[in-house]
Amino acid sequence: MDDKNTAPGVPAELLRLRDSIDNLDAALIHILAERFKCTQRVGEIKASSGLPPADPSRETNQITRLKSLAESARLDPVFAEKLLNFIIQEVIRHHEALRRQAE
Amino acid sequence: MDDKNTAPGVPAELLRLRDSIDNLDAALIHILAERFKCTQRVGEIKASSGLPPADPSRETNQITRLKSLAESARLDPVFAEKLLNFIIQEVIRHHEALRRQAE
């Protein structure tokens, strides 16, 4: 698809690592797609039940749990928290849109 | 660990979806941890080979590929691009730090 395996002057180990990164990115995309399928349905349930789009206590629990998982996996927990917040903000935007449609 | 399975007034389907989201988030964290292991090694190779921390043509290829994967998986490609940029910025910060150490 691209010329990454024939790029001149790029060490072979770097090309192998890029292949692994591309595989991991494909896995990330598919897990995120599945996650948004779940949060889409959560949004529908919240909109039809009159529950608020955001749930601060749930989000606090999620972030605490993920920071602990990140530490075990040797991933920077501050980065994990920033990333989860980034995803949650997108989810809340979706929930608000669903709520406006339901009103 | 938290009270999500006994929360009063929360529909049962929403609780089941939250369990799935928690599982998917754990998968995300572990894939990201593996991805940062790869990019950490990429940073070491770049620093020792004198290659620049960022590689705009590689990043353009990555983003084009991931937007296409996101579309196939019915994930918003604009969100996928924003997320990948967020991750890449973190990786570049790590590479710059490694480069400063190598200098």
3D architecture notes:
The structure is a homodimer of 103-residue chains. With 103 residues, chain A is an all-alpha fold. Chain A has one domain (3-102): Chorismate mutase (Chorismate Mutase Domain, subunit A), CATH 1.20.59. The first copy, chain A, is built from three helices and no strands. The first copy, chain A, has helices at 12-49, 56-72, 77-102. The longest helix of chain A has 38 residues, at 12-49. The termini of chain A are far apart. The relative contact order of chain A is 0.11. Chains A and B meet through helix 1, helix 2 and helix 3 of A and helix 1, helix 2 and helix 3 of B.
Regions with little confidence, pLDDT below 50 for 5+ residues of chain A: 1-5
Give the topology string of chain A: H per helix, E per strand. Answer: HHH
Continuous helix count of chain A: 3
Helical amount among residues of chain A, as a percent range?
over 70%
**CATH structural fold name of chain A:** Chorismate Mutase Domain, subunit A
Largest sheet of chain A: none
Q: Quaternary state, please?
A: homodimer
Number of strands of chain A: 0
Task: Record keyword descriptors for this entry.
Chorismate Mutase Domain, subunit A; elongated; 103 residues; homodimer
Give a brief outline of the structure.
In chain A, 79% of the residues lie in helices and 0% in strands. With 103 residues, the first copy, chain A, is mostly helical. Residues 1-5 of chain A have low confidence and may be disordered.
